[in-house]
Write a structure and sequence with these properties.
The chain is an alpha/beta fold and about 375 residues long. It has 15 helices and 13 strands. The chain has a seven-stranded parallel β-sheet, with helices on both faces. Strands 10-9-8-11-12-13 form a six-stranded parallel β-sheet, sandwiched between helices. α9 packs across α13 and α12 crosses α14.
Length: about 375
């Protein structure tokens, strides 16, 4: 592969940037500051930015592949992206959209010394949900899981699940949590004492336990707490909000805003007192980290890697996903104890800034790339 001192990396996306992955462009912008990295973003469909290279059309790629195979009959059949990475002596092909894993099957059939290292970042659904319902994901893990050079996951729980359920060697799995942004000085929050403002931000799908979150608000109202709950995000199950708001009589206490740009969301988060997320399945949600980073205590479920996003009992509370009333009781506990709330806010800032900044994520990635390529940075 690339024999000079630089580490040449292809980041692979379907589209770039992606609305629901706003944390990726700042990460890549931070990485490109390091001169020993030679970065390029390869996209199959749409892309914006100086580092972006849009791959040719499907028809062009197929013609190119046939011509290449005619001239190179002794090599395995490779697709356009794979041929390009070999010709350009790429050190690492990093799939950021993991569902594109079939795009590197040809490379994975080559001897390790004759191909780039393959790195795949897995989101929660790729680990916890898709392999249960899609045979192609089971086949991928079974056939190639222990040939891929490195999987990047968001939490220790996700690593354990990927290894125990799908048979991936834990030495190939690297925990590199997503980041909330750059480290900054933030003051802890004080409760204003005139009611509670609670927020959730997630993709509206069954894994996020929309009903469980809304039942928490129902219990708070029953406990005579002056509460208003705002939800942000869209998705296939957003109609559940309307149904359960009506079922539980929450019309005056709940506002659903739908899809929102991440920059605007970060501006709005400051007005909230509590972040609520009682998911059934989760790797490590960016939204919890973003809220925690500005001092908002979080009430979350104990599902997947969610507990790793906070300090349970110090910066937030964990409950079982079904335990909406317990979640409400813990919110009341914070509401009735301003000094405890303040200490949770302070701990949230400290914990998140220390463990989930872009600086941390960049450092972990550089260490991984150096280890895989045996090139020092």
């Amino acid at each position: 592969m690339n024999r000079n001192n630089k580490i040449k990396v292809y980041y692979i996306f379907q589209d770039y940037p992606i609305f629901y992955q706003p944390y990726i462009p700042p990460l890549i912008q931070s990485l490109k500051q390091f001169t020993f990295l030679d970065l390029s973003i390869q996209v199959f469909r749409n892309g914006l930015g100086k580092l972006v290279e849009i791959l040719p059309s499907y028809t062009f790629r197929k013609i190119y592949e046939k011509c290449y195979y005619i001239l190179n009959r002794d090599t395995p059949k490779l697709n356009y992206l794979e041929i390009k990475s070999l010709k350009n002596k790429v050190d690492i092909v990093h799939l950021m959209d993991s569902y594109l894993h079939q795009k590197v099957y040809g490379l994975l059939t080559l001897p390790q010394s004759q191909r780039p290292k393959i790195v795949i970042t897995l989101r929660g659904k790729d680990t916890y949900i898709k392999p249960w319902i899609l045979d192609k994901w089971k086949a991928f893990y079974s056939n190639f899981g222990n040939i891929v050079d490195a999987f990047i996951v968001m939490s220790n729980h996700q690593k354990s699940y990927l290894s125990n359920k799908w048979g991936i060697n834990p030495e190939r799995i690297h925990v590199i949590p997503i980041s909330f942004g750059n480290s900054k000085n933030v003051s802890p929050k004080h409760l204003k004492g005139n009611g509670l403002k609670i927020v959730s931000v997630f993709r509206m799908c069954w894994e996020k336990n929309i009903e469980g979150n809304l039942r928490t608000i129902k219990y708070l109202i029953e406990k005579e707490i002056n509460v208003h709950y705002d939800l942000y995000g869209d998705g296939p199950d957003s109609e559940q909000i309307l149904f359960f708001v009506d079922k539980y009589g929450l019309k005056n206490n709940v506002t659903y805003f739908g899809k929102i740009d991440n920059k605007l969301l970060k501006e709005k988060l400051h007005k909230y007192d509590i972040f609520l997320q009682l998911s059934h399945s989760e790797a490590l949600p960016t939204s919890v980290l973003e809220a925690h980073s500005i001092g908002i205590p979080a009430i979350i479920s104990d599902s997947g890697g969610l507990p790793e996003a906070i300090q349970p009992g110090k910066s937030g509370f964990c409950v079982p996903a079904y335990a909406s009333e317990e979640a409400a009781d813990l919110i009341v506990k914070l509401y009735n104890n301003p000094s405890l709330y303040y200490s949770f806010s302070k701990a949230a800032i400290s914990y998140t800034q220390k463990n989930f900044s872009i600086e941390n994520e960049v450092s972990y990635l550089l260490e991984l790339y150096s280890k895989l390529t045996k090139k020092q940075y």
